[in-house]
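Input sequence (271 aa), recorded before submission:
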Amino acid sequence: MSNELTLKTKCYLTTQVGTQVTRKSTKTEWETYGEILRRVDEAKQWAIGDWLVDGKRHYGDGLYKRAAEITGQAEGTLRQYVHLSSQFELLARTNNLSYRHHYEVASIKLITEFDDGMVELSSDPDHNKIAELLKEAEKQGWSVVDLRKQVVAYKEWQRRYIAAKNGGEKAQFAPSPPRKQDAEPDTTDEPILDDVFGPTTDEPPAKPGPTQPPKKYDRSSYLRQWSQAIGPVRRLVDSIARGVDEMHSPLHEQVKTHLESATETVETWME
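Predicted structure, token format:
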């Protein structure tokens, strides 16, 4: 079987070494071929993902290592391709939207409601909401950035909805109180990081006496502690991505999304 790559129209013939002009093109034909080339580049990500999904069914162990050797792509990137191809069947993909559009909505999860009325985010994708946003993005001509804003807004709605359902009457869809930006927060009676992550020395923690019960802190104090701790983690993730030359790669963005999701969960927990 020949493995020669060819792409042919009335005016152009593209192989793996370049594009040959077979006859003079009109402006429309020239623009159309440029659009085809763009789509080929984006189709590559779906194609590799689908190829790997098929490979996983048959060959299993060592798949990603061998696929990385064949494609020249990092194993982490290949795993992200598999994740998206597995989540979006062919009929669920929108031809007029980019691969990145689909990536942006892939993290939207279903809200699960329990018999006792409590709710939480599940690990299952919300296919209906994902399809709705993709359809609207196509209709409105949203860019990737526009769609990302819609996803962020919807996740914020989910966070507030979960807080309201789980917190009763006191947790409603109200905006957070404004914070003063010109004054340092008073942290004199806040828990230090040792309280959250455990002691940083080898000495055993002191046991509270019968008349010295452990302090109880306001939840906002712990939320501020989380905010202070997560910043260095975000910078570390970016540093790792730069170190392996994968800044803004699908896997780098996925880790950042997980950190944001964790922050949203802590904010809900501390409300």
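Checked by second reader. The radius of gyration is 25 Å.
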